[in-house]
Amino acid sequence: MAVEMTTRLDRVLGARTAKAMGESLGLHTVRDLLRHYPHRYAKRGEMTRLDDLQVGDRVTVLAQVRSVDSRPMRQRRGTLTEVTVGDGAGTMKLVFFNHRYTRLVPGAWGLFAGTVSEYRSRLQFAHPDCHLMTGDDEDVDWARALIPIYPATKEVSSWVIQRSVRLLLDASGGFGFVEDPLPEELRARHGLPSLAAALLDIHRPTSDDDVEHAAHRLRWDEALTLQLTLAARRRAASLEPGVARPRRAGGLLDAVDAALPFALTDGQCAVGEELAVELAREQPMHRLLQGEVGAGKTVVALRAMAQVVDAGGQAALLAPTEVLAAQHARSISAMLGPLGRAGELDGDPAGTRVVLLTGSQKTAARREGRAAVADGSAGIVIGTHALLQAGVDFSDLGLVVVDEQHRFGVEQRDALRAKGNRPPHVLVMTATPIPRTVAMTVYGDLETSTLRQLPGGRGGVASSVVPVRDKPAWLDRAWERLREEVAAGRQAYVVCPRIGEDAATEEEPDDADGVPAEEGSGRRPPLAVLDVADELRAGPLAGLRVEVLHGRMTPEDKEARMRAFAAGEVDVLVATTVVEVGVDVPNATVMVVMDADRFGVSQLHQLRGRVARGKHQGLCLLVSEAPTTSATGQRLAAVAGTSDGFELARLDLETRREGDVLGAAQSGRRSGIKLLSLLEDEQLIAEARAEATALLGTDRGLADFPGLAMEVAALATDERAEYLEKA
C-alpha cells in the first residue's frame, strides 16, 4: 500500500492498535508515530539503574531471569510467583499472581514493563507486562546492539511501538516515502542528514553515533519549526497598522523626568531611549523588558506611558494581583504628584488622571473609573484582570504594559490589545530573569531589552541558609537577628508556603510555585501563615507588632495591612507569596523564608528582592529541613551564594523539567518539542532563529518549501502551541 506522512495509523497497523495509540499516546498518523522517538536505548549487559527508580515510576527494563519461585498463597486460592531478574547493574523482583508465562525460566531474556512499587523496603514490579526474547523473526531487533525503549503507557507498551515502527518500515520499503521539509542548502550548510536517514537511525540505530547524529538533525526540525512560527508572528505584528506616539517636548514625560527624586541609571536611560524610538513608529512595539529585581522597570514603563499620553493616547498597566496593582497605582501617583490628578482641585491641568480598576472595587468607584477610561480623561489606567472585562472601553489605547508576564496567558495580553482602536504598542515586563534560550523560544515573538544595573544607594542583600535539621540552634539565632533589626527601627517579612486553617486550600490564588506536601508522602504539610504568626507572637517575637497578609483576606483588608506595614505601624509581616512581586517598603531589611525548599529558585530570588530596597543592608534567611548535603540543600546554598538573577535562572532551568519551562508536561501529548533542550542547544536555537528570519524575509517566504510549511502548520494546530506561549 502507498504510505505517506499523513496516512492514518489504522490503515497501516489495524484498527485495534491504532485506536489504543490514539487514545493513550495521541498518535493518529504515520507522522505522529515516526515523531514518537525512543527516550533511551537498552543494551545487553545494561539495566535501568535500580538506584534511579522511584516508587510510582512506569519504566521498561531489559533483564535476564535469575530465579523463579512459585508457592501457594496463604490468604486466598492460587499461586504467588516471585521472579528475580538482573543484568549486571543489580536485581529486582517481579511478582505475579497465578502467572501463566511458561517461558519465564532462569536464563530467559526479556523486556519487563510496569509501575515500580515497594514491599519490605525492596523495589518490585507487581504483575508487569513481559516480552520474552526468543530469537524468532519477530524478535529480530533483539539481535541489534541497541533496543529502542519508547515512552509508553499501560495500554501501549514499548515493544508494541517498536513492532509498529518495524511494520511501517517493512510496508513502506524503508521510509522512502518521507519527504524532507528542510531546504537542501540549509542541510548542506549545517551538515545535516536527510529526514528519512535520521528517522531510520533514531528508530533502528546500530551505534550510539547513529543516535547522536539523528537526534541532532531532529532537534533542528524542532528548533526551526518553532522559530518559524515565532518569526511569522513577529512579521505579522510588524505589518499591523498602528499609531505613532512620538515624544513631545515640554509634555508629561519631561515633567516626570524633572520630578524624579533620583537620577536614572545608564541602563534605564538606554532602554528608555530604545522604547521612545519604537513608540514613535507606526508599527506597534512588541518588546519584553526583563530586569533584575529592583532594577527600576516601573520607572521605565512610566516614562513610556507618559510619552504615549503626551501623544494623545492612553496607557494601560495590567498587574497579576490586586496588591501589586494597588501598589503600582500608589507609586505612580506619588511619582506624578499633581501631574497625576488632572481635574482635581490640587491637580495640574497639564497632567493626566491615574485610575485604578480592580474586581473588588465598590460599584460607584468602578463606574467612575470606567467613565474616565471611556472619555479619555484617564491617561494611565492600572488594574488586574478587571481591565479585560466587557464594559471597560478605552477612548484611544496606545500602550499596553503587562507586568509579571509569567502570571498571564498570551490570550490575556491579546484581549487587552484588542481594546485599542488600532493595535497598541505592547511592553511586557518580568523580574524573573530569563535565559537566552527561553527568551528565543517562549518569548520569541517579542524583542528583548534587559536591565541589569541596580540603582545606586541600595544596601544589598546577604543571604544564608538555616538548616534546622542539621543545626537547630540556628533558627533561634535567626529570630534574634530579626529582633535586632526591629530594635534598630527596621521591619521584616516572614514568608510561608500556605495560609492555614482550611486544609483544603493549600495554596492561595496568587501563589505560583509553592509545593504542597504530597498526599501519603510522609512529608509534613507546609508551614502556614496563621500558625507561624501565632507561634511567633507567643514565642520568639513576643512583644513585636506581628501581622499577617494572605490571599484569602478581603482586598480592603490586604490594602489596609500593606499601608500599615509601609507606614511602619507593623514590625513583622507574616505572609504568603502575595508579597513576591512589586511590594516596595524600603524600611524592610529582613526576610525569613520558612520551608524554603518548597519554593522554586526564581521565586526565592523574587522574594529576596523585597528587602534592602532602601539604604540599609538586607538579610534573607532560607529556613529548611533539607539536609545540607542533599540536592535540595545544595540548590538553596546556590541561591544564597549569588545575587545574579540570570545565573540563578540557568540554575532554575537545570533543576526543573524542561516541560515545566515550556508549558505543559509532554507525557501523553502530541508535541512539537521532544528532543530540543533549552539548556544544551542554545547555539542550535540561535542558528535556527537566524535561518527562520532569513527564510521568511524572502518575497515568497515558505511558498517554495511546502513540507516546511506543513510542519509549521502542524505546530500551530498542536494543542501544545498554546502552552508554549503561556510558559
UniProtKB/TrEMBL annotation:
Every Helicase C-terminal domain range: 474-654
Keywords linked to the UniProt accession: ATP-binding, DNA damage, DNA repair, DNA-binding, Helicase, Hydrolase, Nucleotide-binding
Region (Disordered): 501-525
The organism's place on the tree of life at top rank: Bacteria
SUPFAM superfamilies hit by this protein: Nucleic acid-binding proteins, P-loop containing nucleoside triphosphate hydrolases
InterPro entries named in the record: DEAD/DEAH_box_helicase_dom, Helicase_ATP-bd, Helicase_C-like, NA-bd_OB-fold, P-loop_NTPase, RecG/Mfd, RecG_dom3_C, RecG_wedge
Domain Helicase ATP-binding: 278-451
Pfam families reported for this sequence: DEAD, Helicase_C, RecG_dom3_C, RecG_wedge
Record GO biological process: DNA repair
Gene3D superfamilies in alphabetical order: Nucleic acid-binding proteins, P-loop containing nucleotide triphosphate hydrolases
Skewed-composition ranges (Acidic residues): 503-513
Molecular-function GO term, any one: DNA binding
Full protein name: Probable DNA 3'-5' helicase RecG
Organism per entry: Geodermatophilus africanus
